Amino acid sequence: MVIREDNMQKQNYFLLLIRKLSILILIAMMSSCSLVKTNAQDEAVLFPVKVDGKYGYINREGQLVIKPSFKKAMAFSDGLGKVEMDNEKWGFVDAKGEFVIDPIFESADYFREGLSVVETIEGKYGYIDKNGEFVIPPQYEYADSFYEGLASVECESGKYGFINKQGEIVIPCQYDWALNFSDGVAVVEKNEKEIVINRQGITLFKSKWDGIYHFSEGLATIEINGKYGYINTKGKIVIEPKFWLADDFIEGLAVASMGEDNYPEVYGYINNKGEFVIKQQFIKAYRFSEGRTDVAIPGRGRLLIDKSGNIIAEIEVDGIGSFSHGLAEVMIGDRVRMHENLIGYIDRNGEYVWEPRK
Length: 358
Prior knowledge:
Layout: H1 13-17, H2 21-24, E1 47-51, E2 54-58, E3 64-70, E4 72-77, E5 80-84, E6 90-93, E7 99-105, E8 107-108, E9 116-119, E10 125-128, E11 134-140, E12 142-143, E13 151-154, E14 160-163, E15 169-175, E16 177-178, E17 185-190, E18 193-198, E19 203-206, E20 211-216, E21 219-224, E22 227-232, E23 237-243, E24 245-246, E25 254-257, E26 267-270, E27 276-282, E28 284-285, E29 293-296, E30 302-305, E31 311-315, E32 319-324, E33 327-332, E34 342-347, E35 352-357
Antiparallel strand pairs: 1-2, 2-3, 4-5, 5-6, 6-7, 8-9, 9-10, 10-11, 12-13, 13-14, 14-15, 16-17, 17-18, 18-19, 20-21, 21-22, 22-23, 24-25, 25-26, 26-27, 28-29, 29-30, 30-31, 32-33, 33-34, 34-35
């Protein structure tokens, strides 16, 4: 529901959602405030901040550890931070702020499953390792990050398929678009028909609904006659389509609204049985991360709540990102003019570790 500034992943997801953008944009997009997690406990975990118009990094205690010198800086992943220089080229720095991968790429994604997808000056996409070496040469019209050992790529034909980490095409380029794998399945479209495939490219079932969206935590949102519900990975409806809006399940909860039955629209959170466990009361509601999320009710600032709906703190900001390693980025300003925003960080108690500043 929050919007990421650095959306290098073109996200085929939006090709699917575009016809419902007026509704699902409220919750389907991730924000520039979002952070990327790393699984390795001993990897560097630093957070980008802006000081006098330049970006550097702080640690979890809010101490500035990498001098602000970058045009842009994004969250660390796998011990490396993605940065953009004044020449608009992207590279990666280590915890000392030293380049380990020179800034030579038109765009670069976070490291995921040990690889980063990058775009060359020729407009081709390939994959590099943490030494900056190409392990899969730049050859694709577009390429996404790896999920569950597979990545969707766009071939010269304009069709999408999937490759493994050796760069071998394991599911041929035959789809109009392809979402990432999750829970062992992926949603793709072929001949204007949405289908769900497994890792071998075998069709598990075809959509019988008006729309089927991304799987998360074993469930995918479907649409029937303008109402949203959920199916499991076998294509069985497990939550009947009754919602005006229904988001992905994250940490066991999903943003949902009965909408037209409760005008003006308010949002709450449902469990995987379709029951509201946090009642509909918010004019804005976002996905949970590390047991926290922010919501809004009329006449108050952003409220930081836990998964029981308890208010942790009220924070006067315009945006709160997802939590990662105990911190969340907060923003004061207009998302349309991101470079003018004030950026800070809060902990899970809503306390500032870095006050918002330019």
